[in-house]
Amino acid sequence: MKIRRIQDTLIRAFAMLIVLALVLLGTLSYYYLHKILIQNAEQTTMQLVSQLNRIIENYIRYMDDIALMAINNADVRQFMSRPHADSPQLRGKIEATFESLRAVRRDIDSVFVITRDGRAIAATTGGALNPTVNLRERFRELEAGVVPDRPSVSSAHVENLVDYRYPWVISLVRALPVGPGEESPGLIQVDLNYEIIARLCKDVQLGTSGYVFILSRAGDIVYHPRQQLIYGNLKTERIAEIMSLHSGNLNAVVDGRAILYTVVSSKDTGWDVVAVSYMDELFRASRQAEYVFLMLSLLVLVGAIAAGVAISSNISKPIESLRHSMQAVESGNFDIDITVSARNEVYQLARDCDIAVKKVRDLIEQNRREQELKRKLELRSLQAQINPHFLYNTLDSIIWMIELGETERAIDMTSSLARFFRIGISRGEETISVRTEIEYMQTYLEIQKQRYKDKLSYEIAFATDLHESQILKLLLQPLVENAIYHGIKNIEGPGLIRITGERAGESMVIRISDNGVGMAPDQLSALRDGLIEPRPSNGVGVRNVQERIHVYFGLEYGVSFESTPGAGTVATVRIPVISGSAT
Amino acid sequence: MRSRSVLFLLAAAVLAAASLTVLYRGARLLNPVSATARRVIVIFKTIDYRTTPFWGNVRDGVVSAGEDLGMNVQIRGPAYESDVQGQIDIVRQAMREKPDAIVLAAADFNQLVPVAQEVKRQGIPLVCIDSFVNSDDADVRIGTDSYEGGQKCAAALMRYVKEGDLVAVMSYVKGSSTAIDRESGTRDYLDGKVRILDTLYSNADAELAYSQAARLIAETPRLRGIVALNDPTARGAARALDESGKAGSIALIGFDNSLLVLRFVERGIIRDTVVQKPFNMGYLGVTTARELIQGRKPARFVNTGSVDISRLNMFQPENQKLLFPVTEGP
Question: Which of A175, A249, A434, B135 is most deeply packed, by most CB within 10 A?
């Protein structure tokens, strides 16, 4: 199984979460920002356009007021319907009336009276009528567009009624109302200076390059800031779509740019006032917001990753250190304190681990002490097994010596016995130096020599460098005793016990040989078996020796026997060389 | 662990790069009135718009394009169209200011050649509008196809005269490139259809045109048509024709659209006049300059076209703007 570090998992999760959140937030806010921007733009533009439309309608209404006033003027009516009443005086009166109107409102370029029979009065700058214009024809053209009792409003056009002046105007025409079935004898045409409308439209600010244009009821352009470009096919507008819309908003792509058309139709004029807003300009604010959002996103992302690193290292570092501690424990080092810097569950976990490890350590220690104690107790019990017969026999010998009056020998033997026991019973140390052991054996052999007299002689030869080596207390005495009791005691003639000690590498080899009766093979094997499987009745002392060596030094050490019947026995003890005093 | 920190560094680098990009783009974004607005100097033959409304119309196109494209457009020019040296000085001054492009209406076909070469040497894109220079130095030429204009005049004339009729062609400046082109367009069209008298040259002088036309009309009773290839010539010829009282039998075709010419058109003295599109010249001059600045390769010649105007169509909405520019404030 692939192990993932908590830190990585956390950072990854953090980054993913933040990115997801940002993308979601960005998309949503982008979407809503756009929606709001479009809504705002639509509303604002609609307000602007409606306002512009109202202003234009006001102008038109004002023109209509003038037309109505003119058409209701008695002089004008007389001029229209009574050709024979036409006189310079009448014309002068009418002209004066119109001129006073024009003087008040400079946005009125001209006021014309045109009659069916081709007469006309012009109140205009310059004054003279254009002689090339056929007035009857003009009357018929104008009359065609007029509904009785209603004004008709033209698109922007060049007015050629005035001689040598071609002003751009918007014309409002009203015919003199007459009874049903009758032909109207004349009409009034009021020309509004086109520049007024143009300026009104131009003053509407729609972004940096947005603009307003006006379409007539027929779809002709009343005003467009780039009219020439449209005629030159250098620019297009979606006029058909706009015309079908009447009022509202329309999205379109024109000449490669996404635009928003905002259209308001006027009932009075029949015109469509159309605002053109460029989307890219509308969304400039949005792009700024996007930019700010992107910057913030990057900041948040960096911050989140930093926070992820900090938080996860806060969590994983203690775990890591705990893991290191536990690895140390795994490799057997219980002697450590497990502490982490965190103050959370990991801290509790570490504390629990610490307690557990300490408990294990205590248990191990306790176990070790118990084992040691057990071993010591075993050793002690083994050491205590000094053959009691030796004491009885010795004491018997001493009694006999006293009874026979051999006081000196009795004293010697008693003091030897005392020394023997002082060494043997001495408490505390489990091991003694080889030298002390030798001394001990000498004491023992001296005591036995009192009993066996010339029948027992002995030699002790230890390499001198072994003298200070440690040996288990009273290890050799049972073997010596064995050699006496089972070896030389039963032979005729003098018996010799040789005890030698030599070094073999890191081991010490001690041989105790006698020239006694020796052992038959079955006897020897019984003894050897006894070394392995203790038999209570036989060879207690020897088995004791073997067990003590095994317990204290390990199974690779021990005692072995070689024997030839009639020639003697050799007991070989192998123990390690331990210098100084061991435990 | 090591590869992770490398990865982390990489991610940090990517983040930093992204931030820088965003920062750069954003800085431009937050400053909508970009300091990088392109500067174009437009040099007219004259900036006396009152006497030559043609240039007022060109100016309207130039200004409109500047507004539409968000470019910094400066219009200059001598007070008189005849001040060729004045225009050369203006071009030199413009070069010193190191604009992003220069739009030039050459006051003289040949005399402006050296200065056009200088502009070219400086690596400033050069667009010629209306009138060109007699060299290859303009990157783009925008104007009326004069040959085509001449053909339109001839086509208009053919609506009023019969095959085999006698007609006259009145040109203006002998050797002027536009005059040559207009005349050959006219002659090529009329060739084989009607009989054509020798070309008269008015030197673009209305008075000279008047006297030439008056003599022509008086001495050539069978004359049925006159093509006058520029505005003053048309004006002069129209006056002579008007005074001769033969406007009904002799069809006069003019060129361009001064108010006087239009009055004659309205009265039917001039039957048709072929008009150019100065607004479009100005507008396209600036848009083409921008294309050059942006390193694009626009067509080397743009024909802004011409329109045949008669009494019948002169007040049609699409022609009104062309013929009667809305005079705006100063």
Answer: A175
Domain count, chain B: 2
The Cβ of residue A373 has, within 10 Å, a number of other Cβ atoms equal to: 10
Asked if B114 contacts B275 with a C-beta cutoff of 8 angstroms, the reply is no
A21, burial (CB in 10 Å: exposed 0-12, middle 13-18, buried 19+)? middle
Q: Which CATH class is domain A72-191?
A: alpha beta
- Does the residue B136 lie in any domain? yes
- Most confident by average pLDDT, A101-115, B35-49, B168-182, B268-282: B268-282
The H or E element that residue B41 is part of is strand B39-43
| Whether residue B261 sits in one domain with residue B174 | yes
Q: Do A160 and B315 touch (CB under 8 A)?
A: yes
Q: Is residue B239 part of a domain?
A: yes
pLDDT, average across residues A492-501:
89
Query: B153 lies in a domain?
Result: yes
Q: Does residue B157 share a domain with residue B271?
A: yes
pLDDT at A145: 85
Tokens coding A290:
């996007």
Domain range spanning residue B263?
146-275
Q: How far apart are CA B284 and CA B290, in angstroms?
A: 10
Q: Which of A18, A130, A159, A228 to mutate to test the interface with B (most CBs of B within 10 A)?
A: A228
Q: Where are the domains of chain A?
A: 72-191, 384-576
Residue pair B269/B226 in contact by the 8 Å Cβ criterion? no
Angle (deg, nearest 10), helices A88-104 and A6-71: 150
Model-level pTM?
0.63
Cα separation, B144 vs A15, whole angstroms:
64
Write out chain B residues lying below 8 Å of A194, CB-based: 326
Cβ distance of B324 and A168 shorter than 8 Å: yes
- Topology of domain A384-576 in CATH is Heat Shock Protein 90 (3.30.565)
Dist. CA B247–CA B224, nearest whole Å: 10
Same-domain check for residues B123 and B170: no
The residue with greater pLDDT, A134 or A580, is A134
